[in-house]
Design goal:
This protein has 205 residues and is of the alpha+beta class. Helix content is 44%, strand content 21%. It has six helices and seven strands. It has a five-stranded mixed beta sheet with strand order 2-4-5-7-6. Strands 1-3 form a two-stranded antiparallel ribbon. A hairpin with a 5-residue loop joins strand 6 and strand 7. Helix 1 packs antiparallel against helix 2. It is globular and about 40 Å long.
């Protein structure tokens, strides 16, 4: 990733190289997410995914994923925020959780217009955590929502800056969230943004 190089160029106020490096960094990040999805899906289908639950600090994981995604969000002048409600410790597979978060945040950036906002939240509810990635983007048609998490529909659309997608990310999110003992769904209205939500049990049985 070129985040360090971008920071150095910012310091010398060189706008043209910064623009190019941002574009390259965005392309690299999107390509890495696609490659990770393809590899994860292949391993999942062949039983090669190692499920390793461990106690993790949820806030730290979310902050880390947001930090990695901020360079892409900044390219579209999108505000990306996380406001934790308190310390949250959860027993789950960290790698699967990171894959889910990366895909949901990447999708939110893809379908949010320049100057928009994305907010991530995590709330404890009884014996589970509900995590939401909320955007004020283009929203989703009702007839489309049921297609989003199905790999066999191969549904994909271009983003607000003509970003391409594989149609695999959300299907992988659904599979991983269910492996983690949770559920995933979306609440959305066309033209008014989307809330992608998923739950995780605090303790795996």
């Amino acid at each position: 990733l070129l985040i360090d190089e971008i920071k150095e160029i910012k310091e010398i106020n060189s706008e043209r190289p910064l623009e190019y490096l941002n574009l390259i960094n965005s392309a690299i990040n999107n390509s890495l997410i696609l490659l990770e999805n393809l590899l994860s899906w292949a391993k999942s289908q062949t039983g090669q995914i190692n499920f390793k639950p461990e106690k993790i600090d949820l806030n730290s994981v979310i902050y880390r994923i947001i930090e990695l995604a901020k360079s892409i969000a900044e390219l579209k002048n999108i505000s990306l925020n996380y406001d934790p409600s308190g310390e949250i410790e959860v027993n789950t597979d960290q790698n699967m959780l990171k894959t889910v978060l990366r895909n949901l945040i990447s999708n939110a950036i893809k379908f949010t217009k320049p100057g928009g906002n994305i907010n991530v939240s995590a709330i404890s509810k009884q014996n589970q955590i509900e995590i939401t990635v909320s955007d004020d983007g283009v929203g989703i048609k009702k007839e489309t929502i049921n297609k989003l998490f199905k790999i066999d529909t191969n549904y994909t659309t271009t983003g607000t800056a003509s970003e391409e997608g594989s149609g695999l990310g959300l299907a992988l999110c659904k599979e991983f969230v269910e492996k983690l003992g949770g559920n995933i769904w979306v609440e959305s209205e066309e033209g008014k943004g989307s809330d992608f939500k998923f739950t995780l049990p605090l303790n795996l049985s």
